[in-house]
Every structure is written in structure tokens, then in C-alpha cells.
Design brief:
Blueprint (H helix, E strand, L loop, with lengths): L2 H4 L17 H19 L3 H14 L4 H13 L3 H13 L8 H17 L3 H14 L4 H13 L3 H15 L3 H5 L1 H9 L6
Length: 193
């Protein structure tokens, strides 16, 4: 499943704040090129966006935001295997603050989901758990973690996560009526009284 279908964090504009090691001219050129590539992807010119981002990634190999956007560009084209190294580089680039919170969340979701799509279930679980630890209120991360847990055979935890998410987020009046019971039983599906 492509990142576009997963609806990861959608950055409005690439961050103007970058490493102090870039000259002002390089920083401005980088920001403009990144904004153009994101706009192309958003407008549906995915191949052109990917090509521009690959060139930008070659020029700024340690830039977490460029790596994330490059991964995303591959993912929306169904090139999941090619997206993985860019996602990994985005997470490896410096500290967690190398990405905005939304981009970091999107990177963890994108990488975890892509691992799952590629059958790398253990990697998916590890990445998505990391995401849910950093962003515990993010329902998408929890839903994708539940899918990855299912793929690893951990059906109990998968259903537990989905039930908790359902209880917390459902607007269905009948689910809301039994929210406390669903949350209670989600903790131990095998419990009998």
C-alpha cells in the first residue's frame, strides 16, 4: 500500500530551519528545491517529484527531511523496496529533532507500513512499536501495528489494540454505550468470570 493511501503526515512546506553547516545560499536552494518537489508530488507529478528528490538526496545525503520526502515519493509510486533506505536514512539522520514531529510520525508510519508490505513483519512491529511509544495518541500507528502483529501471529495483541482503538475513537452510539466493557475485555480477551 502506498504512503498516499496511508495518509501519513502531510507537510505544508519544508522547514526553513536546517543545519548551520549549510551556507545561506545552499539552504535557500535546498528549501526551494524541496518545496518544488513536494508540490509536484502533491499535484500528481510523482515521477518528476521522485527524480528531483533523488537529485536533492544525492546533494544532501544527511538531510532527514529530504530523505523522508524521497522515501514518500518512492512509496506513492509503489516502489516500497526503494523507499526503505530513504526512510531508514531519515530516522538515522541525527537526533529525533532532525525531523518535525509530524514528519517523524510520518516516517515511522511509512517505514513500518512499508516493512509490513514487504513481508518484513518483525521490522514492521519494531518500527511501529517505536512509533506508538513516541506518539501514543496516534490511531494510525496503532492500527498499522495491529496489522503487523497479526502478520507475526500475535493475534491476541492485534485484536486488543484494535478493540482499544475502536473503544476510544468510535462515534457509533452502540459502541459508545459499551465502551467501558470493550476496554475492559480488550485487556484480557481470554478472561472468564
Amino acid at each position: 500500500m502506498s504512503t498516499e493511501e496511508r495518509d501519513p503526515a502531510r507537510p505544508t512546506e519544508p522547514s526553513a530551519e536546517r543545519s548551520t553547516t549549510l551556507s545561506a545560499a545552499d539552504s535557500a536552494e535546498r528549501s526551494a528545491a524541496l518545496s518544488t518537489a513536494v508540490a509536484l508530488r502533491t499535484a500528481g507529478h510523482r515521477e518528476e517529484a521522485k527524480d528531483r528528490l533523488l537529485a536533492l538526496a544525492a546533494r544532501f545525503p544527511d538531510d532527514a527531511e529530504v530523505a523522508y520526502q524521497t522515501a514518500w515519493a518512492h512509496d506513492v509510486l509503489g516502489l516500497e523496496a526503494d523507499a526503505v533506505p530513504h526512510y531508514e536514512r531519515a530516522l538515522a539522520a541525527g537526533t529525533p529533532s532532525a525531523l518535525s514531529a509530524e514528519d517523524r510520525r510520518g516516517t515511522l508510519l511509512g517505514l513500518g507500513s512499508t516493512y509490513r508490505t514487504l513481508g518484513r513483519y518483525a521490522d514492521a512491529v519494531a518500527t511501529l512499536r517505536r512509533g506508538t511509544e513516541e506518539f501514543p495518541d496516534d490511531g494510525a500507528l496503532r492500527a498499522f501495528l495491529a496489522m503487523a502483529l497479526y502478520n507475526t501471529g500475535d493475534h491476541h495483541d492485534s485484536v486488543r489494540l484494535l478493540l482499544q482503538l475502536l473503544a476510544e475513537t468510535s462515534t457509533d452510539p452502540s459502541v459508545r454505550k459499551y465502551r467501558a466493557a470493550v476496554e475492559y475485555y480488550a485487556q484480557d480477551l481470554d478472561k472468564v468470570e
